[in-house]
Amino acid sequence: MSSYIVIDGGTTTTRVALISNKKLIDKIKISAGARANMQAPGTLEAAVREAIDRLLSQNSAAPECILAAGMITGEFGLYNLPHIEAPAGIDDLGNSVAEVRLPDISPLPFYFIPGVKILGDIEKTDMMRGEECEVFGLYDGEDAVFVLPGSHSKIINLKDGKITDFKTLLTGEMTASLCEGTILRDAVDLSASLEESYLIGGYRYCREHGINEALFKVRILKNLLSASRDEIYSFFLGVVLCGEIEAIIKTHKKNIFVAGRAELRAATAILLKSEGLNATPVSDEAADMSTFLGMIKIFESKKSKD
């Protein structure tokens, strides 16, 4: 029975988990990611070391190694690992895994999984770190588009077991910035619930009138039309998701799976359905485990060839 410590490193948070026989044993979420290390070098190392020590002290499973992916493999992570170029499948990623020793953090060996890049013109060129593991954790062998809403939303096309192309949108960070740094701060409550008709209404208004005008209508809903907090939030979310939905439509794919953050997952599925597309939201459990399971698939592909 194989046990691993797996690290999913993000821009602002990092998840550290203990997995045994592909089942979650324990998990710690720490409020430190690549951004914290950029601002104060060493912050991420200390947080990861503490999380690993806690997991090992609280559980009896004995992991054979540590698997790491995401922003933790970037220039402000624990080990800077170059992206590999698409098309890229599980074996391609496995062949590029780097074994690294970081004794100041843990005596266990680290295996860092690279991100994926596409090179071409400005429209085609893109990159990801971490989402390649997430998508292969969900992949069941069928060609499909995987939509991963989040801080940096990804629309990833898988064909014949390989990531062939993808797009990145700054949806999550744009949402936070608009709510924290603009006049919409007192209008949008990000803890509100979805009202489907207003979500679709915001999306359609943005498609017709553009994001600039549509965003100010969020303030109009609050100040002049006395909309509820749920209605305002839903209209706003429909506006900020508009570009993402338009990009998904352009893929012309019939099989669309939506993972990522729960609230964005539900909203994305509703908007795609409103456009007549069959989008399947994955379960909370599958979404939560996907990156961890993808890392294990990639590592075990490498191990089978060693």
What does this structure look like?
- This protein is α/β, with parallel strands linked by helices and 306 residues long.
- It has eleven helices and 15 strands.
- The strands form three sheets. A six-stranded mixed β-sheet has the order 3-2-1-4-8-7, sandwiched between helices. Strands 6-13-12-11-14-15 form a six-stranded mixed β-sheet, sandwiched between helices.
- The longest helix has 22 residues, at 284-305.
- The mean pLDDT is 94.
Question: What keywords describe this structure?
Answer:
six-stranded mixed β-sheet; 15 strands; alpha/beta; 306 residues
Set out the fold topology.
Blueprint: E1 3-9, E2 14-20, E3 23-30, H1 34-39, H2 43-58, E4 66-70, E5 84-85, E6 88-89, H3 90-95, E7 98-100, E8 110-112, E9 116-118, E10 126-128, H4 131-138, E11 144-148, E12 153-159, E13 162-169, H5 171-181, H6 196-209, H7 211-223, H8 229-240, H9 242-249, E14 256-258, H10 262-274, E15 279-281, H11 284-305
Parallel strand pairs: 1-4, 4-8, 5-9, 11-14, 14-15
Antiparallel strand pairs: 1-2, 2-3, 6-13, 7-8, 9-10, 11-12, 12-13
Helix pairs in contact: 4-11, 6-7, 6-8, 6-10, 7-8
